[in-house]
Amino acid sequence: MGRFASLLPGMVLAWTLAVSAAVAADKLATDDAVRREMKAIRDLTLNVHTLVTHRRMPPADARTYHTRVKAAVERLRTETTLDGGERDEIENLTQDILAGAEAIGRSPSSTDAIDGIVAIDEALARYAKQFDHPGWQPLR
């Protein structure tokens, strides 16, 4: 039993690493463009989240946020090398992000803006679950 007990920590570590690798293998690939622009969208959203949820975002700031998110999505679409199912999935996510950013830009103090930030939150959470993005930080 003593010998087995001394091997147990190493076995647990090996199992943990194997499970982590299997989980990462199930995720869709990303490329530099996707990682860079999704991080930019995350950072932009993090910076306005409280303003939107407390309905205190100035209209000009809301329009700027929408414009910047839209530009990040366009850069992602233009520069990504993803294709097939990965490209389809990232396109689905960016459609949800754009719709949310548009709602915020259109009416920052309305319930539409709250719905928009919730849609973006959900899309960013899906991104973390579906795509392999080392170092990804959730919004909260």
Short description:
It is built from five helices and no strands. With 140 residues, it is mostly helical.
Descriptive notes:
The protein has 140 residues and is mainly alpha-helical. The chain has a single domain, classed as Four Helix Bundle (Hemerythrin (Met), subunit A) (Up-down Bundle). Helices cover 79% and strands 0% of the residues. The protein is built from five helices and no strands. It has helices at 2-26, 32-53, 59-79, 84-106, 111-130.
List descriptors:
140 residues; mainly alpha; Four Helix Bundle (Hemerythrin (Met), subunit A); 5 helices
- Give, in order, the helices and strands: HHHHH
Query: How many DSSP E strands?
Result: 0
Q: Please name the CATH topology.
A: Four Helix Bundle (Hemerythrin (Met), subunit A)
> Rough shape?
globular
CATH H-tier superfamily:
Oxygen-evolving enhancer protein 3 (PsbQ), four-helix up-down bundle
Mean pLDDT: 88
User: What's the helical proportion of residues?
Assistant: over 70%
Number of domains as seen in the coordinates: 1
Instruction: Kindly estimate the percentage of residues that lie in beta strands according to DSSP.
Output: under 5%
CATH structural class: Mainly Alpha
What profile does the largest beta sheet have?
A: none
**Residue ranges: pLDDT <50 for 5 or more in a row?**
none
